[in-house]
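Lab notebook page, bench 4
Experiment: in silico fold of construct C2
Operator: M.H.
Input chain length: 149 residues
Purpose: comparison with the prior construct
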Amino acid sequence: MTEHNKDTTTLNTLIATLLDSVDGYEKSAEDVDNPRYAELFRARAAERRQVVTQLQQAVSACGGNPEDDGTLLGGAHRAFVSLKEAVSARDDKAIINEVERGEDYLKDKFETALKNVDLSSQARAAADAAWTSVKAGHDEMSALKHATV
């Protein structure tokens, strides 16, 4: 029987948000003109896929059914990004700004999850390990945004 508890719910929320991040990076890699940015986005998407797999394994270990789809909000965000891209005619700076905005959202989700005192040590360890990637991605995209001003 699948277990639904604070651990699995929290980790699945993080998984769904990370899946949105993977989609966002892949879409952004397709839409930027600068090949360096495209490679950077593809690399970040691949890293995030690995983090998703690790969190899915943690959910399974906690007796839960791992998330395998993004969030509804993520779908709305992707639609907004697509609209913005169409209006901005594939403007690399606008895409980088959107990617960084997505990183801010993801960072906030993880910070909220990590403040949860009810997480088991197993779930906390999985979230902490994923946080390393999230923090690095956030910092990298923030630096990229500020370098393209």
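Observations: The domain at 6-147 is CATH 1.20.1260.10 (Ferritin). The two ends are 52 Å apart (CA to CA).
Next step: discuss at group meeting.
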